[in-house]
Amino acid sequence: MGDCESVAPQLEGEENLIAAAKHIVRALGSNKNLTKDVKKILADLGSQLSTMATIDDEGVEGLKSGIEEPLSVVEEKIMSWETDESMIWDSGPDEAFEYLSAVDEARKLIQGLENRCLNGEDEKELLHRAHDVLQLAMQRLEEEFKYLLVQHRQLFEPEHMSFRSSEDDGVDVGSMVSFGDESFEESARRDSVSRTSEECIIDLIHPDVVHDLKCIANSMFMSNYDNECRQAYVTVRKDALDECLFDLEIEKFSIEDVLKMEWGTLNSKIKRWVRAMKVFVRRYLASEKWLCDQIFSELGSANFVCFVEAAKAPMLQLLNFAEALSIGPHQPEKLVRFLDMYEVLADLLLDIDALFPDEAGSSVKVEYHEVLKRLADSVRATLVEFKNAVATNTSTNPFAGGGIHHLTRYVMNYLRLLVDYKDTLNLLLKNDRSVPVLLSPDSSPSTEDESTSNDFSGGVSAMTLHLQSLTSILEANLHEKSKLYRDASLQHFFLMNNIHYMAQKVKNSELRVIFGDKWIRKHNWKFQQHAMDYERATWSTILSFLKDESNSSNSSISRTLLKERLRSFYVAFEEVYRTQTAWLIPDVQLREDLRISTSLKVIQAYRTFVGRQMYHIGEKHIRYNAEEMQDYLLDLFEGSQKSLHNPHR
């Protein structure tokens, strides 16, 4: 405005000066006493002043004509496309170039008029016309910009993502119910997407039109229509990002929706979220950032602002799902999924910081870090809930057949699964002092204290302490469950089965590195001790019938007693057979070992007794020979009840 105010008085002063000079010349010329020479000088001066005035008037008219003519040409070019329904950039590069040139000319005419600050009505009318033409052109360029973004969008096809086939089949980590080992491991396998496919930059818009988009953006920004250009880009690309999430099978859910979901459905959604998060950030957002850089590279921070505005809502949609899970209940079955979600967010942390580095992206980055922290808290809280669930898992009836309890299978398979997350768990649990020092049911306080002291001095990891704590809680629970059996031999049989299963799971998996050989030796000793206690509780009384305690082998009383003892032995043996054929040892090797150990004791005692007392007892009282007895012992522990139907030979 300062320039305009200084130029106007200058023009007005020049006009007044010429008019005053002409007035003086006319006044002097009216004097009749002037000489011819003076009159000639005044006449020449008057002529020159008239010429100057004429030139000035012609200059103004020339200026008007010099603007109006090119403006009319530009106006005609711009207006010609207002009635044409086709798109300029579909008509070829020449038409597009001519249109952008016309826009550039309109902008220059406006700048020229504004710099001259002409005050006449005609000049103001020209300026209004030029602004109207430029506004029409900007509206058209905005339409063309959107059209190119939509029409030449490259479809995103996550061909490497196959969700339903792996998610919706089979059993998954659920509540504490029975799992077959193979189905558990298959269903609980961690999901992964190769980094090669994640990090590949793709062309979201066909490369042939990127230069055209850049030219349109430059023209709109230079014409002070930068807000309209940015808004057009954000509107189109945000829709494209939303469609990408749809292609990745990510749905919009409120916190209430997530909290109401059944676990089976929620588990499937989490798996999809984990896979989609990697692809969306590393592949799609990285490509979106690249597209913004290509189009807006010459326009300051516009590339970053456009990217953030387009990506913000889809990113918050993904983060809101994780946040909803973190504030929900921390059931044990969610632990692995919490770890999956935490790991993928931690893995993408550097990517997010790079994509949203400045203040404009701070809201996304802050929310991202907050959700990551909440998931870490959820992992710790869920592990505590897991321990509580194991400790408080109660039964009203004894487990049929004394086999491996569902709880034992669940916990040990779960621990095997947690080994895959050992680095993450050690990181999250390293400052957690909530691990209780538990006494195992079969250990004396002094032994346990010594073991604990040795563990801490050996620099045991945080994860090891937590997992050992879990197995101690499990053992304590199993001892409580064993008390539901009235038969002492079945109590030991049940504990033998379950502790053997625990030891084998650790020995034959990656858990061995976590627990160590000392733990394995200790639990091998435990189940072997329970096996011996089972044999003692089952067979000690029965084999006592086969002891030869008679003082006179020829007395009739001794013979009667021997026959009664043998009969009692058969009754007891047949009852054991009827009962313990229904008992189950799932592990083949353990079953064979216990059969052999039992057979050695029973058959040896039976052979000795029959061999010594056959003469006094008589063959008719012998129901089974040693080979038959041995075969019957091989029927034990199969989990299918049988009875002996040959009470007399």
Explain what you see:
With 649 residues, the chain is mainly α. The chain folds into 4 domains: 2-136, no CATH class; 171-377, no CATH class; 400-527, no CATH class; 545-633, no CATH class. It is built from 24 helices and no strands. Helix 16 (406-418) runs parallel beside helix 20 (488-507) and helix 23 (588-617) packs antiparallel against helix 24 (626-633). Mean pLDDT is 81; it is low at 1-12, 53-62, 160-171, 182-187, 192-198 and 444-458.
- How many angstroms does the end-to-end distance come to? 128 Å
Q: Tell me the series of helices and strands, N- to C-terminal.
A: HHHHHHHHHHHHHHHHHHHHHHHH
The general outline is: rod-shaped
Mean pLDDT across residues:
81
Helicity level: over 70%
Please report the number of helical segments: 24
Low-confidence stretches: 1-12, 53-62, 160-171, 182-187, 192-198, 444-458
* Rg for CA atoms: 47 Å
β-strand percent reads under 5%
Count of structural domains = 4
Query: Structural class, judged by helices and strands?
Result: mainly alpha
Tally the beta strands: 0
Largest sheet: none
Q: Outline of this structure?
A:
The chain folds into four domains: 135 residues, no CATH class; 207 residues, no CATH class; 128 residues, no CATH class; 89 residues, no CATH class.
